[in-house]
Specification:
Order of helices and strands: HHHHHHHHHH
CATH architecture of the largest domain: Orthogonal Bundle
Number of domains: 2
Radius of gyration: 18 Å
Oligomer: single chain
Distance between the termini: 58 Å
Strand content: under 5%
Number of helices: 10
CATH topology of the largest domain: Rna Polymerase Sigma Factor, Chain: A
Largest sheet: none
Number of strands: 0
CATH superfamily of the largest domain: RNA polymerase sigma factor, region 2, helix turn helix motif
Amino acid sequence: MMSGAMSRRDVTVARLSGYNEAVIPDATLVRAVLAGDAAAFTTLVDRHARVCLRYATRMLGNVEDAEDATQEAFIRAHGALARYDGSVAFRTWLMTILINRCRTAIGVRRKREDRITPDAEAVARAAVPGDAEDMVLRDAIERALARLDVAHREAFLLKHVEQLSYEEMAQMTNVGVSALKMRVQRACERLQLLLAEDRIDA
């Protein structure tokens, strides 16, 4: 049995404690959590939080919403850990929860008639060191990503940013491989068009 529900604060302050994360498999950590070892879940958070936050930031367009979605995903994962049966990788299972949290966040935002636009902090965190031209291109890509519809942005990020296989993507999204391939192709075509328009406007 787990030692109690996990709070947002627990996720926020999570730090490595007593585990060598390069050696201990996720499945072993899951069993340790279920046996009551809170430090094991802290290690899972530290191991996967960066990837989750990166995906959520690009999916939702701003860091604050991404942090909320990532924290919610870990909280929900902690609460549902007893139902994790190991049939898929823990990362796949966790990303499935995160994808659903991002979809929910976007749905709520649409109801408020808010637009999804990347803020400066999101772009800065996503940027890699480079010259001014690199930064201009990355900024243009972030703007173009924000203009994709949810399904195409989701498929593009999972394939080309997270570099997942189509089979892994299908497990996470509950969408067929053929449909995902089509979404990725159309997302790439749409991004090329948007980037071309961005250059013309500039």
